[in-house]
């Protein structure tokens, strides 16, 4: 198969992954809403699901597809490595500012992918959360 066909298939798969990531993100954010929004929308505590899966299951699928998309992006960059390097050399030739900007960009992207693994969440006991939100849901009690 010609290189252009591989590139087309790779690009189509990347676009499909990004469309799925966006669509599932919209599903999680606007349709399978979190508990506090379920109370406001439905007036009671209900479980929401689509195709038998709730927010957390769709979140896992969202993550897996995003990782597949990142893998495809890595392959895309590998397939275009010569062009990328030639373009970077052309842009950076005599222009230290462009080379520095490219290096900062790469490190920023790596930082954004790695930093979540070092975040320590704030742990709040469930009773504290109920006390905070209890006043908001007085009209929704059974």
SSE topology:
Blueprint: H1 3-31, H2 35-42, H3 55-79, H4 81-92, H5 96-114, H6 126-133
Account of the 3D structure:
- Helix content is 71%, strand content 0%.
- With 142 residues, it is mostly helical.
- The chain has two domains: 1-79; 82-142, no CATH class.
- α1 (3-31) runs antiparallel to α3.
- The radius of gyration is 22 Å and the shape is elongated.
- The termini are far apart.
Short description:
The protein has 142 residues and is an all-alpha fold. Helices cover 71% and strands 0% of the residues. It folds into two domains: 1-79; 82-142, no CATH class.
Number of strands: 0
Q: What is the overall silhouette?
A: elongated
**Residues in β-strands, percent:** under 5%
**Which spans have pLDDT < 50 for at least 5 consecutive residues?**
none
Number of helical stretches of at least 4 residues: 6
* Overall radius of gyration: 22 Å
What is the end-to-end distance? Answer: 64 Å
List keywords for this structure.
mainly alpha, 71% helix, 0% strand, 142 residues
């Amino acid at each position: 198969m010609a290189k252009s066909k591989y590139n087309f298939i790779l690009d189509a798969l990347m676009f499909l992954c990004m469309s799925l990531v966006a669509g599932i993100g919209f599903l999680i954010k606007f349709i399978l809403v979190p508990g506090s929004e379920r109370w406001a929308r439905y007036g009671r505590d209900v479980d929401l699901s689509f195709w038998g899966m709730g927010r957390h299951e769709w979140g896992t699928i969202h993550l897996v597809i995003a990782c597949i998309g990142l893998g495809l992006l890595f392959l895309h960059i590998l397939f275009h490595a010569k062009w990328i390097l030639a373009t970077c050399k052309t842009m950076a030739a005599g222009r230290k500012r462009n080379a520095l900007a490219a290096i900062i960009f790469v490190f920023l992207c790596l930082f954004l992918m790695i930093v979540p693994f070092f975040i320590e969440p704030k742990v709040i006991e469930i009773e504290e959360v109920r006390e905070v939100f209890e006043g908001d849901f007085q009209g929704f009690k059974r």
